[in-house]
Structure formats: structure tokens, C-alpha cells
Amino acid sequence: MNKLYIFFIIILCSNILYAQDKPVYKHSELDIIVNNVKEQYIPDKRIKVFDVKVDDSNRRPTLQGVTSDVTAYNEVIRQAKEAYGSDFVDKIKLLPESDLGDKTYGVITLSVADIRVEGKFSAEMATQATLGTPIRILQKDRWSRIQTPDGYIAWTQEINYQPMTKPEYESWKKSEKVIFTDYFGFSYKEPDTKSQTVSDLVSNNIMKLEGDSGDFYKVSYPDGRIGYILKNQSKPYNEWLASVNITGDSFVQKAYTLMGIPYVWGGTSVKGMDCSGFTKTIMLMHGIILMRDASQQAYTGIPVDISKGYKNLQVGDLMFFGKKAEKDKKERVRHVAFYIGNNKFIHASGYIRISSLNPADPDYDETNTKEFIRASRIIGAVDKEGSGIWSISGNSFYK
Questions:
Q1: Rounded-to-integer distance, Cα 73 and Cα 270, Å
Q2: Rounded to an integer, what is the distance from CA 180 to the centroid of its chain?
Q3: Which residues are identified as catalytic?
Q4: Share of the chain residues as helix, strand and coil, in percent rounded to the nearest 5
Q5: Which pLDDT tens digit goes with each residue over 275-333?
Q6: CATH topology (fold) of 28-95
Q7: Cβ neighbours, 10 Å, residue 129
């Protein structure tokens, strides 16, 4: 028994010594190239992917990972060739992945689909998309990495959308549609509210118009399901789009109708919203697409000068709260609201509610007043080049 024990000790020690003798390669120059390219070409990882790393396990370094940015890919390869010649391996995949074939398009099929920062249920919710929202499919790894019309890239389950080829996608976009304009409701198997429900519906849900039956529209979902929705809860899409009133007053009036709806991190629908999800939802009700997060929305639209107080603010302007830039720190935007006049604003904080910048008001919000750092105007900025604000008809996902 003792001899056997000694034998195992000798084998174990030999393995340890072998592991210590095995050469370890560190390709520091290539690591620097990857990090510099990422910093230069991918300033916002929410709208572009550059998950590239250097594998140091071999003498010849390997670049591996994925990116959605062709320019960044070309640049990292160019610099790698300058530094290493042909003495490196390129295993970077460009998104969308070739494994997807021709089904790199899709349309959301649920009333509200959750989209997460990673492909797992335990991951933080990044955003949501509502029924009828067009998407790009970039990657599949049990979950799907997708991009929404505001440019946001994150992960969702395939059951949440209908994959499509480009011709199928174009056909869907050109079809006559209906938009659900009520806040909550259902579609039904038959033109009868006592019949079996097909699904729940929320504001901004878009379906294909298939016909007319009394008080109901016959509709189809992107995945082919058929249902009937009440006409008094919906409108033909083009008729709705033509009727939208793009004014600051209209933004605020609509915002008031959501009072009391709870704050939900990552939420972008009437089922629950975070602060920027609230502003996005109100804008989508007006046929306008905002970028996803407050820190993105803050640098879109037309800047409003608040350096000398609040007199330049107009009803419907976006207000942003956070920390101003300092010598060693960048500006940090953490919250957004709509200005409603009289030094007051409406926002998602616990629930949709009204707060004030005025210390004499009972609804004074001391924290946000002290951290009110910038404002921007949506009116006049929609579809302007570089504004970061699109009409539905002017957004490339919908065109």
C-alpha cells in the first residue's frame, strides 16, 4: 500500500514539474492593439459588438471572438499584420454569423419581449421590444443576440421573435398593418370577446391586417397566428401614423395617462418602465424612436441651454440628471424626465409620477434638482442627420 502511495506521489510531482516547464506565451503587443481598436471604434458597446480576445496558449497568437463592426475588424487585422506579419491566427467572426444562413432578420411576436445583457434568465434585463418590432439577428448560442431599431444589441430567446429571410422581412414591412392603441387588451380566436384569447396586447403592438369583421379587425402575427382585435382599441397603421400630433404638449398629455405605472428596470412598455423606457414609450406612441438609455438620449436632439436657469425649457423637453464632468471623471447621466412646465417634471421613479425643481413645492425633488445637468428638445430634431432621433418611417429597420 505504501509503495502504491509513493508511486502516485511521484506521478503527481512529475505532472506539476511538467506544467511548470511548459512555456507560457504572452503577446502583449497584440493585446494592446485589440484594446486600442476597441476604444477607438467601439465607444458604446450597447450598439456595437467587439468581443475579441488574444489566445496566448500557442507561440502563434490567435485573435478570436466576434464583432459587428467591419471597420474595427479590418483595423485590428491591419495592425496585427504590421506587428506580426503572418505569424498570427485570425479566428474573429463577423456578425451576423454565417451559420445563420439567410435568416438574419426577424420581427417580435410577443406583446412584450424581454431582452437581456447575456443569454440567460439570470442576466440583467437590458431592454424590451413590443410585438411587430423589426430586428436584426446577429448570433445564436442557445439564445439569440439581436439588434433593435434604436441600435441596441443584447440577447433574447428565439421564441420571442419570428426569424425571416430578407424577402420575407420585406414582405412583412410592405403589408397593410394595424396598431393596438389602447394600453392593455387581448386578441381573440373569433370576432367575439367571449372566444378563446390568442394573446395579450399592449400599446404600440403592430400586426398585419387580414380583414374586417364587424367590430373587429382580423389580424395575423409575424409567426402566422391569426386573431381578432377590437376596432375601438386599434387603428389601421397608416391612419394612426398620419393622425399623430408631434408637439411637446401632446408628449406630456400622453405621459400623464401613464401615471402610477410601476418602475421596472429594463422595461420599455406600459407593463412597466424604467426612466428612459418611459420616455421611449411615450415617443413610440408618437411614431418616434429614441435611443435606449438616458446616457444615450442625453446626447441626442437639440441641446437646451440651462446654464442660467430653467427659462429656456419648453413643455415636452427631455431633462437629464447625473454628475457633471470633473477633471478626472467623465459626465455621468443616470436619469431622464419630461419637462411639464412650472418647474415640474414627470418621470419614472418608483412609479410614473410628478416632481418639482421648486423647493417650495410639496413634490420638490432635492436630489434630482441638484443633479439636473442638461436638457434637449425632440421637436425639430426628428430624422435630422446625427440627431439620434428617428420617426418610424425614417428608421432603416422600418423602411
A1: 39
A2: 21
A3: 275, 335, 347
A4: 25, 35, 40
A5: 999 999 999 999 999 999 999 999 999 999 999 999 999 999 999 999 999 988 999 99
A6: Histidine-containing Protein; Chain: A; (3.30.1340)
A7: 27
